[in-house]
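LAB NOTEBOOK - FOLDING QUEUE
OPERATOR: T.R.
BATCH SIZE: 2
PURPOSE: Compare the predicted structure-token outputs for two unrelated chains run back to back under identical settings.
PRIORITY: normal
REVIEWER: second-year student, initials M.K.

ITEM 1
FIELD SEQUENCE / FIELD STRUCTURE:
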Amino acid sequence: MNENDKEQEKKLETGNSFLQNKIVQMGIKILSYFAILSILFLLANIFETNKIIRGIIGLTFIFTTLFFLSENVKAINYKTLIVGFLFQLILALLLLLTQDFVGIFKAANDVFLALMEYAKKGINFLFASFVTGNLENPLINFTFIILPTIVFFGALIYFFYYIGLMELIIKAYAWIMMRVLGTSGAESVVASAKLFVGQTEAPLIIKPFLALLTRSEIFTVMSAGMATMAGGVMAAYVAMISPYIPTIAGHLLTAIILSVTASVYMSKTLIPETGDPVTRGDIKIKLEKPGTNLFEAITLGARDGMFLAFNVGAMLLAFISLIALLNDLVFNITSWLFTISPIKSINLLSFSFILKPFTFQDILSFITYPIAYLLGIPKHEAFLAANFISQKIVINEFVAYSNFAKTIAENPDVLSMQSKIILSYALAGFANFSSIGIQIGGIGALEPKIRPTIAQLGLRALIIGNLANFSSAVIAGTIMS
């Protein structure tokens, strides 16, 4: 071998060594991801009014993100991924398009609204005027109308648990998930329970199995918790939004079903199953009845609902006040900066940004603007929609929904009906930063051995929860258009 050949071989080895460097590989991966996002953004701009193509672009964004973040692409079970997505899509088509199911959809909506009327009877009894028999104007507000609804639905859910209705539905849907998606019994049961209860209550059902879960199963349990919301708080969202979106109850029920399904196949893509689940194929569980009799069950449900309502009220008071403080602080600082800045606007592609003083919420909106736009929301509405999405991720969905309801109440035409539907689905989950702490404390307390794993996987579960919500939003928005 001559000197030239040796030199060429040395260069080739150096090049291969460079490409095999983990930092370089990660850099290439990140650049590729953002290159794909840029292309998707341009395509969304070109096909602004084509709802079908916009839906495909939105789903491409979601699945690109999913593959980019997967810790082991080679181990992905593509059958679970493909069948899971098709199952989610078929459920959406059945629930939103098929005439028979649309009738059920509307009936469920009517039942939910009728239950809200029964909740109002209890509210009126406590807070109505002795003179007029009605709620007087000072009491017609969030505290006296929305929060008591949580108490009523807490009691109602415990009632359904006691008579065995919840157990029947949970076992039926868990069986479907095991057969369709090939998931283990434990993770399927928790995901199914998340159709009704919170992210720390659902794992209670499989408490004896928690220490035996594989890393992938733990992640699925966490992701399902992030992707959906509990029945009690859903009732509050219906009360807030139903005056402006009459079918919101049906949409939120659909959002829960679609998102919990998406969370399972997405979690199995991000962290594929490489272990051997103990409950693969089946699981024997029996839900413990809350209380010794029906009356105690209702009492316990009302008590837990009351605690939840108080927590929600305190959280809203604290966070909304803090956001107002941050908004004013950032606005005052940027007002001063722009008075001394010579740059007044920025033009990027077909987007023009006028530089002016902004708030803390504007910063969050700017960060999540590409997400809102790729989900199918029109360009001129995406910045406002991004505000609600960012609030949901950074703070929680209750703050996001309450501000969403307030905004469309003040200006019903500020968002198109399709954008309202997309947002209703995109916000329908517990995927926010505080939920990471809730899961570490709540699920970790049930089985301390898995607490370190929960802490390690928290941020990724938050991402999957949001991607599941976003996929449901894109699918529903495309179908409804």
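ITEM 2
FIELD SEQUENCE / FIELD STRUCTURE:
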Amino acid sequence: MIALIQAGGAGTRLKSITGDLPKPMVPICGKPILQWQIENLKASGCNHVILVVSKNGTAVQDYFGFGDKFGIKIEYIVEQEPLGTGGALYFASKMIDEDFALLFGDLMIDVDWNRFFAFHQKREALITAFAHPNGHPADSDVLVADADGKVRKMLSKHDPRDFFYENLTNAGLYIVSREILHRFTEPVQIDFEKEVLAPSIPEERIYAYRSSEYVKDCGTPERYYGVTADCQNGIIAARNLAKPQPCIFLDRDGTINHFGDYVIRPEMLLLEPGAAQAIKKINASPYLAICITNQPIVARGETTIEQLQSIHFKLEDLLGQEGAYLNDLYFCPHHPDRGFPGENPAYKIDCDCRKPKIGLLLRAQRRYNIDFKNSWMIGDTCQDVQTGINAGCHTCLLLGGDPNPYKKYADAKPDLICQNLAEAIDKILALK
């Protein structure tokens, strides 16, 4: 595995903290950010790193040398003039003969690159972008992707958005096919995202790899202190998907949003008081936040899959307005009972994903390496409790949603009973 790291950042916004250190050399818990990156890459089998530095980048070269003390081969591309985020690929084309990782030297990361590469190779992608939700999608570049991750378009943070969209932001890590290097025929300044990634989308070989792993930039004092705290608390290393992940699975209706009439249009969805802030607390904890919801309104013909996705995009928008996000959302559109007017027969099946069956939880487990025994299922009915029991999770029943929480599976006994999600999350996090 080969990695190309853009390590020429000046770090001017951090000058009050780090003086004249270049951005990749800014220390986090005693080591430069760039060293954390190289060690993370090496842990996944990377044996060759190419660092792109400016002609004044002697601090990086003096510290890392040719990689002997780090057990990895390090080479350099020294830019005599700034070439943007993509211009150095002209020089890289003479040094790389395989698909490679591309990343920027101001990112604190802990990623299972083998899993990332496997996703890229399975799809024979031209470029695969590491993507994740965040707590500020409105001011982030967003990727619009289909169910398999194929990117259909990019939404720039500078463009107005008067519609709902998935909270899936471009994190600044890529796996790039060797074949794209043939397109760089001269050393000119290039913006990788604007002039390489975005124009390649019509070729239908650009993919988004959705992950919950830790990728954050340290480019401002506020972000620097936040990343340092995460490092000290062990959150960064714990998020690597090579390690089992604890998760809080959340029901939707009556748990995150108001319980009432079936939500068949985006304008009908309203958050439960305190739900977004509760999910924000999950985001800052070791747990993932994943929604698991039965939505038989599709089977009943009251809405379509596309309309349901718009409802969920509104949910993500409302959470993002309060700085919160879901790591993922899984829904079951099915219902087993047939013979009703207006129903959609394609979804009238006895599936394996309708709660209390655990098909959706198993899909999440495969994608995020979830450890059920250290995870929770929270919902406003005993059906949710039974789902958690079936998966081997801890369970919490909320009494503030469905007025008949014991209507089905009344014998399912939760580990915890709370009034609402805010109370539940406070109690669960206090157990850690």
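REVIEWER COMMENT (ITEM 2): The domain at 2-235 is CATH 3.90.550.10 (Spore Coat Polysaccharide Biosynthesis Protein SpsA; Chain A).
FOLLOW-UP: none requested
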